[in-house]
TrEMBL record:
Protein origin, superkingdom: Bacteria
Name recorded for this polypeptide: Carbohydrate porin
InterPro entries referenced in this protein's UniProt entry, alphabetically: Carb-sel_porin_OprB, OprB_Porin, OprB_sf
Family stated for the protein in its record: Belongs to the OprB family.
Length: 515
């Protein structure tokens, strides 16, 4: 055994690999204030800091700053490799501008939030199984986004809503991962969110709008690319050929109804009866550190094809092959309330879909703060494209700045500014134009609108072309485990609809990590 370890060490030295423990997470994670589960995705967002190649151990378990930091029972469990975390994220927003008149819309406010319980186990500490860890996360969610009141369902003002099943505990993650060769290889399998590992960044949820907090919203335009709190059975393999590069490939089995209460209300439906195809995303990343200050950057390019059946819900001109389907209703149509639910061509199915993305962030200046992971000014840019004939959102672009530690007297505070642009697919526009041209839209001010109906497909009041969001936020570190972030949002063409007037909102996002 000793000779084998010496031989391994010599081989590692010959390959030029450094032997040092993981430093992804310091013992105390000051500055990591996202809700539970966000810490896990940082494992792909930080350049490789090798684990001990001889022990093949994984990175330390997440340890966010918390109010009840040193409870005896929790510390006793952590020493044995078992971590429990409980938190609450709450988001409030209210419109400060009046909505478009005559459509049944209103000016108002609402609150949305989530409490979550996370359990992570390091099985090396607990049972001597090197490199193996398991992760379980469940949530309870409440509330709706206030932007719905003035007609925007495309980029919700509060991201922390929906998919929770309206139950006390909705199971999300239930998976295991194995770390090998000092972090060069990581394998995960179980009930997982595709977009926790792919097309994601921990930077996004410094903000509150759902345009990209969580994931770029266009990523979730289809159920096949599951996004927290939606999950499916899957496996992911991530390899790191060099310290600053990685490639990861996944295979997931999308399930219809993962966000609804009819099929997967509690998250405990494991039989896979609704599996509709196979999703095989691939992502390549480069994570350089520039200059003497070692300014970190993250550059990601990915592609995600899937073989599930997709009901278009968008216009395709009738032809000899699909003429018999030209008056079909749209399955799971969000606006099927007697108007707008029959559009020529919308019953057609496609059994192939794809998404393409490029994400980039770069620290351009470091600040001297206790926040070693985020302490500096970071610029980011995102671009995402969907296959047009299976998507409502054809493309999304976003950019912004996030600065932590810019104020010496408040080293753990963060300020951020962002802008997002979302464009509809041409098939969505064609379908809505057809509805308008053929009298499928009730007159403004009619009883239909007063009952809360949106006449066009995708819950729209007019043709959807493009929309944008501008957001400014300031996250205040109130005390250990508590943050409070006043937030301003401005919506250009809410819901990508030029028939709706621009809207402005004020609100806040708070996070409390109990333990």
């Amino acid at each position: 055994m000793v000779n084998a370890e010496k031989a391994a060490a010599a081989y590692i030295h010959h390959m030029g690999l450094r032997r040092r423990p993981y430093s992804n997470y310091p013992d105390q994670e000051f500055g990591v204030f996202g809700e539970n589960g966000r810490e896990l995705l940082e494992r792909v967002n930080i350049p490789l800091h090798e684990g001990d190649p001889l022990n093949n151990d994984g990175p330390p378990l997440p340890r966010p700053e918390a109010i009840l930091q040193k409870m005896h029972w929790n510390e006793w469990l952590r020493e044995r490799g078992v971590a429990f975390m409980l938190d609450n994220t709450n988001e409030f927003a209210g419109a400060i501008t009046s909505p478009t008149k005559g459509l049944g819309l209103r000016q108002g406010s609402s609150n949305a939030g989530q409490y979550s319980l996370e359990n992570d186990i390091d099985w090396n500490k607990l049972a001597g199984i090197r490199g193996f860890q398991t992760h379980i996360i469940g949530v309870g969610r409440y509330g709706i986004p206030a932007s719905r009141m003035f007609g925007d369902n495309v980029n919700p003002s509060q991201e922390i809503y929906g998919g929770g099943g309206n139950v006390a505990f909705h199971l999300i993650h239930f998976y295991g991962e194995e770390t090998l060769w000092g972090g060069r290889l990581n394998i995960a399998a179980g009930r997982m969110s595709t977009n926790t590992d792919f097309a994601n960044s921990p930077i996004y949820c410094n903000f509150m709008n759902n345009a990209f907090c969580g994931n770029p919203k266009a990523v979730t335009d289809t159920y096949t690319r599951s996004s927290y709190p939606g999950t499916s059975w899957g496996a992911r393999v991530r390899g790191r050929p060099t310290d600053s590069t990685y490639i990861q490939v996944g295979i997931y089995f999308p399930e219809r109804g993962i966000y609804g209460v009819q099929e997967n209300r509690t998250g405990f439906k494991f039989n896979g009866a609704n599996i509709s195809g196979v999703l095989t995303p691939i992502e390549i990343g480069w994570e350089p550190e520039f200059g003497k200050a070692k300014l970190p950057g993250h550059y990601k390019f990915g592609f995600a094809p899937d073989t599930s059946d997709h009901y278009l819900g968008v216009y395709n001109p009738p032809n000899r092959r699909n003429a018999w389907r030209t008056r079909m209703t749209v399955p799971n149509c969000p606006t099927c309330q007697g108007v707008g639910d029959e559009v020529p061509g919308t019953g057609i199915r496609r059994n192939f879909n794809w998404g393409l993305w490029f994400l980039a962030d770069q620290m351009i200046m470091k600040n001297k703060t206790a926040d070693t992971l985020e302490g500096g000014l970071v610029a980011f840019f995102d671009a995402y494209w969907n296959k047009a004939d299976t998507a409502m959102r054809g493309k999304l672009y976003a950019f912004g700045l996030v600065d932590t530690g810019f104020w010496a007297a408040r080293p753990l505070d963060t300020v951020g500014v962002s802008f997002s642009y979302t464009g509809s697919s041409r098939y969505t526009r064609d379908a809505q134009r057809f509805q308008i041209a053929h009298g499928m839209v009730p007159a403004a001010g009619s009883a239909y609108y007063q009952s809360g109906g949106a006449p066009l497909m995708w819950g729209s009041y007019g043709e959807q072309r493009w929309g944008g969001t501008f957001e400014v936020t300031y996250r205040i570190h109130v005390m250990r485990g508590v943050t409070f972030a006043p937030d301003f949002q401005y919506f250009f063409n809410p819901g990508m609809q030029r028939v709706l007037k621009d809207a402005a909102m004020l609100g806040f996002k708070s996070h409390i990590q109990l333990f």
